[in-house]
Amino acid sequence: MSLRKKILIIEDDQILAEMYQLKFINNGYSVDILLDGSKVGNYLKTNKPDLIVLDIILPGQNGLMILKKMRKKSDSQNIPVVILTNLSQTDIDMNEHLAKVLGIRDYLIKAKWTPSKVVERVQKIIGEA
User: Fold this and answer.
1) Can you give the pTM of this predicted structure?
2) Nearest to 102 by CA among 60, 52, 59
3) Beta-carbon contacts of residue 108 (< 8 Å; ≥ 6 apart)
């Protein structure tokens, strides 16, 4: 069994998701990608990632719906979640508050964080878990 920490990236932009996947793999993580929010429930039935990087705008189910469902289930309620999104400032203010109520570990704006800085932030959070 692998001792590498597993990260799940839930992001509908495949190029972006694969870029983050490569960054995390190069830093020693095992990484899965889901491009559609409706697939998260089935994934979590058989997998337990150490951390989830979650976009808010997704096909199928949006990130906040996914987070609400996760927090209601005992097997996924304690998985650390980092929101990584590019919403407008008004949407960010509203969603950041809701996401914090739902227990996210961080709320990052894609345009303000380089991939390397996102990896550093995730490493810090996984180290605290």
Assistant:
1) 0.89
2) 52
3) 82, 83, 84, 85, 118, 121
